[in-house]
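As a warm-up, study this chain.
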Amino acid sequence: MRRISRITVAGAATASLALALSACGGTSTDSGSSESKGDKGLAIAYDVGGKGDQSFNDAAYAGLEQAKKEFGYETADVEPTDGETDADKEQRLVSLAKQGYNPVVGVGYAYAAALKSAAAKYPDTTFGIVDDATIEAKNVADLVFNEEQASYLAGVAAAKTTKSKTVGFVGGVDIPLIHKFQAGFEQGVKDTDPKVKVVSQYLTQTAEEGGFSSPDKGKTAAEGQIEKKADVVYAAAGLSGQGVIEAAAANKVWAIGVDSDQYQQEALAKYKESILTSATKDVAKAVYNLSKSVEDGKPETGIVRGDLKSGEVGLADSNPKFADDAELQAALKTAKEKIVSGEIKVKSS
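Now compare it with the structure written out below.
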């Protein structure tokens, strides 16, 4: 357990820290254990799109808020900067570790190189990285998910819902992680109704080009798919997915959200009636569980995977029109059971 003295800093403001850290750049020469006198808790460094993306980053923040409330300690959440390098990311992570935050989580695969280096410099700090399984270190937890399984269910939902027999997939960036979403979705569609056509598009080749952070790009892509008669569009595109949802609402077709239950997101409230469901992955739970493991003195390390069986990926059922569709729910239940049993093996590429 942590020292009880940490409670005395529970109310400390972290805004100034976040501002200072978000501007960090360059490489760090610091090494060794924390120099902080306090005993601080969870810190997260956001991925592209930052806090307020109504998706991936906000899910991580929800996990941080849960940990802060339960454990009563000081937390920090830090924004990325435009055009930053791996050295900038490393400096951000090192600065958090140096100040005594534990664990320190990089939200997104882009932190891989930086986090590996930071973890080597601070072996007594537990680090976590979301959506990357390449770091093998005694003090690193690779928090990964079977996104393709939730996407398969999204494909089932799309195929059962479409009237035009055409559905769309919008991927933020053309990378293996997003290929998992596409592969699962397309397989779910085809297994459910081979006559349904899937129109797929990626917004950019690299994250630096804004594939995960440009609602305007998402909106344009979705409009193009809708012109091709897609009446259900699934987006795996971070903040860009907001544009997809906006386009779906404007054209009175269905959108399928991603990562968080986007039907429940306040910023998307005016579009909620067009959000059929969301293919969720419980980044909040993964981040919270890592924090709890540190709190309990048994830090998670190695690959920590969330899947359909564990309940850490799935489909949100907040929209009553989705939840009350008995035929659709029966099809989803059957598909889920077959995936969990291994009868259906979902492709990841």
